[in-house]
UniProtKB/TrEMBL annotation:
Domain PepSY span(s) in chain numbering: 73-128, 149-203
Pfam families registered for this protein in UniProt: PepSY
Lineage: Bacteria, Bacillati, Actinomycetota, Actinomycetes, Kitasatosporales
Keyword Signal: yes
Stretches with biased composition (Basic and acidic residues): 171-181, 189-207
Domain of life: Bacteria
Signal peptide: 1-25
Record's keyword terms, sorted: Signal
Entry keyword GTP-binding: no
Region (Disordered): 24-72, 166-217
Compositional bias of kind Acidic residues: 47-59, 208-217
Organism this protein belongs to: Streptomyces olindensis
Name of the protein in question: PepSY domain-containing protein
InterPro entries in the cross-refs: PepSY
């Protein structure tokens, strides 16, 4: 519609003076070309973002489908190998390689951190190494008085979908376990699990952060 209006304006101007008509026509063409170029560039960026998001979802789906061992089972296996308190478990690539493993972080009684790798197919411990962490006191304080373990939190969240990670949120006022689940349809959701009751509630913090970021943009 706008293009027809520009052409009509140019035609009318041509009846008045050829030079003016030429200038108007050129201006209209340049504006249209610039607009088309910008629209094309933005569309290309959107397509690439969509493709990147789809690739990430495909990678996550592949990791989930490759694991026969659940998060609670991986945690139990890690604790059998390395005694202590499980603080997190995540199904992830091993050292950025194609191999997927469960990575379980265990805080031992002498405050040493251990990263235990568990095979997602057999539940066998593949290896363990000590980690340097600087939030030991914060973790101990958050877990003080807690009656729900990481394993129990993962079991509670399993009612919502396949648990791909569980982690202790020791920051802020409301301490809790956090879990990420994936449904059979591929939808991801974050959950909070109460440290004392084991009650599972939807984690709205990520959605609020995304809304805040959109407002800033």
């Amino acid at each position: 519609m706008k293009r027809n209006i520009v052409i009509a304006a140019v035609t009318a101007a041509a009846l008045i003076g050829g030079g003016t008509a030429t200038a108007l026509a050129t201006t209209g063409d340049d504006t249209g070309s610039a607009r088309q170029t910008a629209d094309t560039r933005l569309s290309g960026d959107d397509v690439r973002d969509d493709q990147d998001g789809a690739d990430d979802r495909d990678d996550d789906a592949a990791r989930v489908s490759s694991s026969d061992v659940t998060a609670p089972e991986a945690i139990a296996s890690a604790l059998k190998h390395t005694s202590g308190t499980a603080v997190s478990a995540e199904l992830d690539d091993e050292d950025d390689s194609a191999k997927v493993v469960w990575k379980v972080d265990v805080l031992s009684g002498d405050n040493t951190w251990h990263s235990v790798s568990v095979d997602p197919s057999s539940g066998k411990v593949l290896g363990s190494h000590a980690d340097d962490e600087d939030d030991t006191a914060q973790v101990r304080a958050a877990l003080k008085g807690s009656s729900v373990t990481a394993e129990e939190a993962a079991k509670a969240a399993a009612d919502k979908g396949v648990v791909t990670s569980v982690d202790l949120d020791e920051d802020g006022k409301n301490k809790s376990w956090e879990a990420e689940t994936r449904t059979s349809g591929g939808a991801e959701q974050d959950w909070k699990i109460d440290l004392k009751t084991g009650k599972v509630t939807a984690d709205r913090s990520d959605a609020q952060d995304d809304d805040a970021a959109d407002d800033q943009d």
